[in-house]
Specification:
Blueprint: H1 2-21, H2 31-40, H3 42-47, H4 52-58, H5 61-68, H6 71-89, H7 94-98, E1 106-109, H8 125-140, E2 144-149, E3 157-160, E4 166-169, E5 180-182, E6 193-197, E7 200-211, E8 214-220, H9 228-231, H10 242-262, E9 269-273, H11 280-290, H12 295-305, E10 306-309, E11 320-321, H13 323-335, H14 341-347, E12 359-360, H15 361-367, E13 371-374, H16 377-387, E14 401-403, H17 410-413, H18 416-426, H19 437-440, H20 451-479, E15 497-502, H21 518-526, E16 532-537, H22 545-559, E17 567-570, H23 575-584, E18 587-590, H24 602-605, E19 612-616, H25 620-624, E20 631-633, H26 642-665, H27 675-688, H28 694-706
Parallel strand pairs: 1-2, 1-9, 2-8, 9-10, 10-13, 13-14, 15-16, 15-18, 16-17, 18-19, 19-20
Antiparallel strand pairs: 3-4, 5-7, 6-7, 7-8, 11-12
The chain binds pyridoxal-5'-phosphate.
Length: 710
């Protein structure tokens, strides 16, 4: 009796704490926490795409308390909650130790955030990068605040029609089902702010997501106070026409600054992640002028606080707005500065006096930032070349655009199995040592992980990917009213060299390049001794018909009788699909048209799982590849017509695949272990894991740009 009375309140306290934990994305990179949510309701967990909030909506207080009365389960829960609290209360963070005087927060602005599959407010790599950036900022203890938009319909879910054509579905993101809190005024009631767009005043409310120690604020115009038209302004990621586009960017930049002010936040740095948020400098400028500064002093003050990261290596990829659109959309706002419209336009023009030039967001950001950077060494160089006229020079050394190479948040991308593997061998705190090359050099130490253990890990992860694909195809079959999952067990094989290709189907990424000469490739899949299998996934932007044609081609390959079951296209690429693929892939294929891949990050996600990169020397791979830690497709060149480039790159791809990759993979000793392949994995892990992670990346931002004036 006594015993029971003591246990009950603690179960209740635990229940409350567990609910709180479901509302802090810390759990996204903590496998034990995920296991708890899954345990509570395996069905809801799976059906909701791993949504912890949805699990807790399903579970009654009664059920939760009853479950927590079970001592083994309660012990695990208590352990995870203690870890969570230790993380949140940590006093000696990286930032406190290394940058003790850096206290005023960084305000980080991005149009998309990819943090977890259950929060679909991202479209691709830019969003994934923002999500990984904010997670590492939290891990490092940096004072950091994210600002973005709350997309009620998010980004679309992809289905493939019988004709291989992409179809788009837009399910609703119900705030009740997300780990978001409505931001309220201190005196109660929701916090409302507004911006002027065109002739209207557009109101917005704000949702907050807690990402470990860092808050992320998402602006939302879906309010009865707004005209119907503006209620939908923030409904879709990069949705709608050019008016929506500029409206969203005004909301993000100008609205974002106003939100921070209404919360009493004075950031030390405004970090614009890509040009979408660059209008924020106009609001900062307006504030400085209103405070009585001269134009020159106001501009200087704004520049002193702004930092810009560019991601786009082609001129056509940058947001541009016409004079009329600018006048129409920003006229009312800009008139409050007392400055001429022509002056506004001059901030977005390479040649301020050229009235024919459109307004470019990147130009605005470059002109009004104290520092700017690209996202890999090569991309930094390409950006300096592209924008040198802005600095009136031909000498690239004089163009003030640097670079910080992207990374990934390794603890989020590591699957539960990878966490277990490294926890056992490197200790539970390996995730705190990601940037330490000496630590990762241990991979060569005797006894840490044998070839046999590494190969067992690879084999397990490959099996899990194969089963994931089979399950998805099986569900698809039933959805289509098929007569049963016959032959699913013949789909892919856990014993075959597995190549994966997954990313947005932007045409420059050349998804179908692998099959440029179908007749040469088909025998590789059907070789009885040394076969290959290839798994694809990826979405095309809804308005990108050329990208959709690429999907259609790839789907056709997967239906070719000679490739059936050996080439698969997985529908609806998202973070969850990505996590399975980067874990299971033996080889991660990337064949963009050089130099259009500013960085690329998907290939970095496989490193912790022992996946090897096979890539064009573009973006991060130019600096990551050392001749032994993966494979290059071709060399440093970009000459020739597009057709010539494709032909040459296909040639190198085929050659390296058939002469190096396949033979090495199937070169086994008497125990069936590919020793050379595993030696390559070790080399890869030592050289890539400590560099291509966001802890290193955010630390670089902090040292180079956030904490010190450049
Ligand atoms: C990592 C990732 C990307 C970015 O991949 P790239 O190779 O950089 O194009 C896009 N989408 C998802 C879902 C991802 O996980």
């Amino acid at each position: 009796m006594n015993h029971k009375r003591e246990a009950t309140p603690s179960a209740e306290v635990l229940a409350v704490q567990l609910r709180q934990l479901s509302r802090n994305l810390w759990w996204v990179w903590n496998p034990d926490a995920q296991t708890i949510f899954k345990e509570l309701s395996p069905l809801v967990w799976e059906r909701s795409n791993h949504n912890a909030v949805a699990v807790f909506r399903e579970i009654s207080q009664k059920e939760l308390s009853a479950r927590l009365l079970e001592p083994d389960f309660a012990r695990i829960v208590r352990h995870v909650i203690a870890e969570f609290h230790a993380y949140m209360d940590e006093k000696k963070t990286w930032s406190v130790e290394l940058l003790p005087d850096f206290k005023q927060p960084v305000a980080y602005f991005s149009a998309e955030y990819g943090m977890h599959e259950s929060i679909p407010i991202y479209s691709g790599g830019l969003g994934i990068l923002s999500g990984d950036h904010i997670k590492s900022a939290s891990d490092l203890g940096l004072p950091f605040i994210g600002v973005g938009l709350f997309y009620r319909h998010g980004y679309f879910q992809q289905r493939i029609g019988p004709d291989g054509w992409q179809q788009e579905l837009y399910p609703m993101n119900d705030p009740e089902n997300l780990p978001v809190e409505l931001v309220e005024r201190p005196e109660g009631g929701r916090l409302l702010n507004s911006v002027e767009i065109g002739h209207s005043v557009v109101y917005f409310q704000t949702w907050k997501i807690q990402v470990g120690r860092a808050p992320l604020y998402l602006l939302d115009t879906n309010l009865p106070e707004n005209d119907q038209h503006y209620q939908g302004l923030t409904s879709h990621v990069y949705g709608g026409d050019i008016d929506t586009r500029i409206g969203q960017e005004i909301m993000l930049g100008i609205g974002g600054v106003r939100l921070l002010r209404s919360l009493g936040i004075e950031p030390s740095v405004y970090h614009m992640n890509e040009g979408h948020s660059a209008f924020l400098v106009l609001e900062l400028l307006r504030e400085e002028l209103k405070a009585g500064k001269t134009l020159e002093a106001a501009e200087k003050a704004v520049r002193g606080k702004c930092l810009f990261t560019t991601h786009t290596p082609v001129p056509a990829g940058h947001d541009r707005f016409s004079n009329d659109l600018m006048q129409h959309s920003l006229g009312k706002f800009w008139s409050s500065t007392g400055l001429e419209h022509g002056h506004l336009m001059s901030y977005g023009r390479v040649d301020p006096k050229n009235n024919d030039e459109q307004f470019t967001m990147t130009v605005l950001a470059l002109k009004m930032s104290r520092a700017a950077n690209g996202v890999s060494e090569l991309h930094g160089r390409v950006s300096r070349e592209m924008w040198k006229q802005l600095y009136h020079t031909d000498d690239l050394n004089e163009v003030p655009i640097g670079y910080i190479t992207n990374g990934v948040h390794t603890p989020s991308w590591a699957t539960i199995r990878a966490h277990d593997f490294w926890n056992k061998r490197l200790g539970l705190d390996w995730t705190d040592k990601l940037v330490n090359p000496k630590f990762w050099a241990k991979i060569d130490e005797d006894g840490l992980a044998s070839d046999e253990e590494l190969w067992a890990l690879r084999t397990t992860l490959r099996r899990e990917l194969v089963e994931f694909v089979r399950k998805r195809q099986w569900e698809l079959h039933y959805r289509g009213g098929g007569d049963g999952p016959s032959g699913i067990e013949r789909l892919l094989s856990p014993d075959i060299l597995t190549v994966c290709f997954a990313r947005r189907f932007a045409t420059y990424k050349r998804a179908p390049l692998f099959f440029k000469h179908l007749e040469k490739m088909i025998p590789l899949f059907n070789n009885p001794q040394r076969p290959v299998q290839l798994i694809y996934a990826g979405k095309a932007h809804p308005r990108d018909n050329e990208g959709k044609k690429f999907i259609q081609q790839v789907v056709e390959f997967s239906r070719n009788p000679q490739l059936y079951g050996k080439v698969v296209f997985i529908e609806n690429y998202d973070i969850n699909v990505a996590r399975h693929m980067v874990a299971g892939a033996d080889v991660w294929l990337n064949n963009p048209r050089r130099p259009l891949e500013a960085s690329g990050t998907s290939g970095m996600k496989g490193c912790i799982h022992g996946g090897l990169n096979f890539s064009i020397l573009d973006g991060w791979w130019c600096e990551g590849y050392d001749g032994e830690n993966g494979w290059a497709i071709g060399a440093d060149y970009a000459e020739g017509s597009l057709e010539e480039q494709d032909e040459r790159d296909f040639g190198y791809l085929y050659q390296t695949l058939t002469e190096s990759i396949i033979p090495e993979y199937y070169d086994r000793d008497e125990h069936g272990i590919p020793r050379k392949w595993i030696a390559r994995i070790r080399k890869m892990m030592k050289t890539l894991i400590p560099v291509y992670n966001t802890d290193r990346m955010v630390a670089e931002y902090a040292f180079k740009y956030y904490a010190f004036q450049t």
